[in-house]
What does this fold into?
Amino acid sequence: MNDCLEKHRDIFSYVMLAMALAVSAAAPARAAEALQITETGVGPIVATTPFSVQRVQQLLPGYAVKMDKRSTEGESYRVILVTRQGRTLATINPAAGEKRIFSIRVGSGQVVNKLGPKIGSNYASIFGPTVSAGCHAGAEELSGKVICSHPKSKHVSYLLSGRSNGLDGSVPPIATLSKFVVEEIIWRP
It folds into this structure.
C-alpha cells in the first residue's frame, strides 16, 4: 500500500512540476501578446508610468526595450523604443523633464487597437464621409499628414498619410482625405 502511495505521490509531483514549467514558459509569451491600445494606455503602460527604460522593461518582459534619440528642428531628444523580433512596435516620447510620458506612437499592426481602427485603415472607414472636427494638419516633420482624434476617445488619435495636392498646413478636402490611411496610432495620457 505504501509503495502505491509513493508511486502516486511521485507521479503527482512530476505532473505538478511539468505544469509549473509549462505555465512559467508561457508567461512571457502571454505578456508579449497582450500589448494593446486602450483608452487607459498601451498594454500595462498607463498615465502614471514614468519615462524609464527600466520600468517599461519591467512592464513588458516579452519585448526588447531601449533608449534611442530622435530630433526635430535640430533639437535632439530621447525616446524609448519597444521592439519585438527586431521590429519597432512603439516609440515612447517623454514629457518635458523626462519624468513622465508625453505620448506613445504605435506604428505596427502587431499592437491591437481595442478601439477598432488598425494601421492601414482608411479615413473614410473610421470617420465617414465628412471632415471630422477632431482633425488637424500635421506640422514640422509631420507636414503633409493629418492627425485625427478618435471620435470616442480623449487619449487616442490617428496619424494619417496619403497623397494630396493641397496646401501644406491644411487638411485636404474630403475626396482626398477619405483615401488617407492610418500610419500610426497615438496614445496620450
Q: What stands out?
A: Residues 123-187 form a domain with the protein yfey like fold fold (CATH 2.60.460.10). The first helix runs from residue 2 to 33. Residues 66 and 81 are 5 Å apart (CA to CA).
